[in-house]
């Protein structure tokens, strides 16, 4: 038996109520847009976190290398020559570290060997002085005979006594693993770590024409004053693998690029026309933040 009022109740129902179990097209679009926004924000945050982590790892590596360089100075009286040192600079350093080398009568040969070793790769100059010459693919320190500490690797065997390297080395063949050196020198993620030594009134020895990527590696100034004027600078190219443009802001396509490099002047972080975007993510042993961006005005 039908109860009184059933027809009225059916008549008063919302005719749209039957479709409320499903989403409308507009609601679906809104959900998709929100999911897209959240995903985009998450990717940006993840990328930033990875960059921050990578920069922190590089900074720690630079700190470790800097500590080894300071130990080197304590042991041998001065910082090692950098990639722009002249043959005279190298000879002076050899005789300061190994005064007995004069007795061998082979100082000039040692300078030639040191020069060849320092030019093996963009980051090899400091590696040579901290860890010795490459003999058979290994660097186990300089030879114990202080009259001839730098032998020609072709004329010695692996049994020749050696000193302990100043730095602990882990080999990394392609520069993408966890090691800290390979044939190119001291490395991180397939880019070299460049070392510049301060040198008296001239500031620094000079520049390094970086051949493993783009840009020119060089020591930095700010407001006309050198960073670390009494010690050294370590410079890493950052995530982009680019040390920066040449000193005059010329790019690789500029017809006068080579001439600009020959007329090199140091980059000043307070001068906007000398600093490129590629400089900003460089990491050094003197920047307050993880990257040079914190030092650029």
- What best-fitting shape do the alpha-carbon axes yield? elongated
Helix content: 25-40%
Strand content: 5-15%
Low-confidence stretches: 247-263
Class by SSE composition:
alpha+beta
Write the layout of secondary structure elements.
Blueprint: H1 6-12, H2 25-76, H3 87-97, H4 107-118, H5 124-131, E1 181-182, E2 185-188, E3 191-197, E4 220-222, E5 225-226, E6 232-236, H6 257-262, E7 267-268, H7 277-280, E8 283-284
Parallel strand pairs: 4-7
Antiparallel strand pairs: 1-2, 2-3, 3-6, 4-5, 6-8
Helix pairs in contact: 3-4
Any overview of this molecule?
By secondary structure, the chain is an alpha+beta fold. The chain is 34% helix and 9% strand. The chain contains seven helices and eight strands; from the N terminus they run H-H-H-H-H-E-E-E-E-E-E-H-E-H-E. The strands form two sheets. Strands 1-2-3-6-8 form a five-stranded antiparallel sheet. The protein has a three-stranded mixed sheet with strand order 5-4-7, with no helix packed on it. A hairpin with a 2-residue loop joins strand 1 (181-182) and strand 2 (185-188). Helix 3 packs across helix 4. It is elongated and about 90 Å long. The N and C termini lie far apart (88 Å). Mean pLDDT is 80; it is low at 247-263.
